[in-house]
């Protein structure tokens, strides 16, 4: 970048008199820190180089108040700002059919709105070698969103899953990050996207009872092992404090927080009032924006979109024959009777004698598989399968078994039915 002589002299003056950093100088002048360094370190550059006139920015006519509000709602993400200006130009005083690149927006922000310029930060990147269908990486990201009608930001936990070979992604709005939210989100992901060979996760207490060490493998929660056994997936945990192990989903989490959420929040045609509407908007963003990203695979020059790569990877994934409905997971608490027994769909489940009149957790799939754990959900007591004929012929609990629905999370299925989620959110707010 070539500067005018007045700008070059200003850089040298700020460097000599004000003793400012190159980033501070760049923000004042409207250039990059590298350009500020070149002109500050070489005083002769201003006279030796032929100064080129600076073209007026395409954004000089923008409504500056509206542009500032867009910067705030988009969190200074130049890609989101550029997309909003192209999709809704009249909202910002620009002519119909206006187009602008993210690079031009970024330069305009640095020159005219330097205080709101965004500084890039490195993101850990894991091993780039993956095989199709071999793995899915999962995580939770906590973001903030202002629902319509609110004058405050609400913390929203988002479950995220990415297949690292194709970058196929899945997002689910959750009320919390408890174990049952993990389970239902995992099942929703594999019901929609398919089952890989392994699933890579953090050492969350709801998933891992003993973290992976150099000298020992990780020990997984019995309920998680039971859940994944139903769909033939092997769990794998990262080493503690090593987020780069699952760098693909870590990078996607940043994209959600810095691109997807600001994009949805900034759209003037969307008034998101409920978590269910936010889920719909995120699904639309995945289809219309994210899945158009392109990647190179196979050591060739061929560049394919996420959708095109996923069509290839689908051949290596297993899909549940029963579909999403068969992956429904219910979770509730129950109290064993005096004989340490539970009656589940007409079948007597005997527990160890020590569990007489003790409260336990009953996890069950729509297909009839069940697992009973202690009240902390960490220790498996018994598991099995209820005969199909019993599922429709008997109520879930019989013969005096005391039970209560799990208040932590309303029952939902893997097909993303979020009707009950709205009422749950309302109870929290």
Task: Quickly give the structural class.
Answer: alpha+beta
The amount of beta strand, in percent, is 15-25%
Integer count of domains:
4
Number of strands: 16
> Which architecture of the largest domain does the CATH hierarchy give at level 2?
2-Layer Sandwich
Q: Overall pLDDT, averaged?
A: 80
Helix/strand order, N-terminal first: HHHHHHHEEEHEEEHEHHEEHEEEEEEHEH
Distance between the termini: 51 Å
Largest sheet: 5 strands, mixed
CATH superfamily of the largest domain: Ribonuclease H-like superfamily/Ribonuclease H
Read across the widest sheet, the strand sequence of neighbours is: 3-2-1-4-7
Number of helices: 14
Text of the CATH class of the largest domain: Alpha Beta
Cα-based radius of gyration, to the nearest Å: 27 Å
Shape: elongated
Can you characterise this structure?
The protein has 429 residues and is an alpha+beta fold. The chain folds into four domains: 5-48; 64-116; 135-316, 2-Layer Sandwich (Nucleotidyltransferase, domain 5), CATH 3.30.420; 329-405, no CATH class. The protein is built from 14 helices and 16 strands. The strands form five sheets. Strands 3-2-1-4-7 form a five-stranded mixed sheet, sandwiched between helices. A five-stranded antiparallel sheet has the order 15-14-13-10-16, covered by helices on one side. A hairpin with a 6-residue loop joins strand 8 (294-296) and strand 9. Helix 6 (78-87) runs parallel beside helix 10. The longest helix is centred in the middle third of the chain and has 20 residues, at 247-266.
